[in-house]
């Protein structure tokens, strides 16, 4: 059984899953402090599902892109659990996990997360008979991302927090929006992607896994500017 965690955005989500079923999922989209909420709700979910911690044989976690603080909280928790329980750890790209929300949709899936200043973190995935990555993840202006997504032909479905933020642009360009429950980050999808990685032997060390920020934080950029002048 796999425990999955996603704290990459305002959404806080954790789930329990096996190869052929989602056992439990706890997801909330509120401005709560992930550091205070994650472990208590995760413990409660495990308890309510009637699962013993010794039944958990693997851990999966979203590693970014996303909220710098949120990613650190989720990753630190997953690394600790993997190390203490001595179980495999699978780091899952946040954009890939969002694409798994629409697995089997017979469409191209466009996950969109806020990269600030009019930019989005985006990638493009094919969700037909199997899931594959069509375009690598990057941070780019939303208009550029829309134009690139439409060059592949076929239906395109947008997921992620910026599917709502840029709804008008997306719809006017002919891109569909996923249903509300399939737009937000979900640990259940992290679990599905994580189980696939573990089957393929693509696990990570809890001692060396790092978040995938794609871009540097504003604090890092500011620090560099200040020290370049001095």
From TrEMBL:
PANTHER family: TRNA N6-ADENOSINE THREONYLCARBAMOYLTRANSFERASE, TRNA THREONYLCARBAMOYLADENOSINE BIOSYNTHESIS PROTEIN TSAB. GO terms for cellular component: cytosol. Residues 33-157 form the Gcp-like domain. It comes from Dialister succinatiphilus YIT 11850. GO terms for biological process: tRNA threonylcarbamoyladenosine modification. This is Universal bacterial protein YeaZ.
């Amino acid at each position: 059984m796999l425990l999955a965690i996603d704290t990459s955005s305002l959404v806080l989500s954790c789930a329990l899953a096996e190869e052929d079923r989602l056992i439990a999922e706890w997801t909330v989209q509120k401005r709560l402090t992930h550091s205070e909420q994650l472990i208590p709700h995760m413990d409660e979910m495990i308890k309510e599902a009637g699962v013993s911690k010794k039944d958990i044989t693997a851990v999966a976690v979203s590693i970014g892109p996303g909220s710098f603080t949120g990613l650190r909280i989720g990753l630190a928790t997953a690394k600790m659990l993997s190390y203490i329980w001595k179980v495999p750890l699978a780091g899952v790209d946040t954009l890939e996990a969002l694409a798994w929300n629409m697995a089997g949709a017979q469409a191209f899936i466009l996950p969109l997360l806020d990269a600030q200043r009019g930019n989005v973190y985006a990638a493009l995935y094919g969700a037909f008979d199997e899931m594959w990555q069509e375009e690598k993840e990057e941070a780019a202006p939303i208009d550029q991302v829309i134009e690139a997504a439409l060059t592949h032909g076929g239906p395109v479905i947008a997921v992620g927090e910026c599917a709502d933020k840029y709804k008008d642009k997306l719809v006017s360009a002919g891109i569909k929006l996923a249903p509300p429950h399939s737009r937000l980050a979900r640990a259940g999808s992290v679990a599905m992607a994580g189980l696939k990685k573990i089957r393929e032997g693509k696990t990570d060390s809890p001692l060396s896994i790092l978040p995938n920020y794609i871009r540097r934080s504003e604090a890092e950029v500011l620090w560099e500017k200040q020290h370049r002048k001095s």
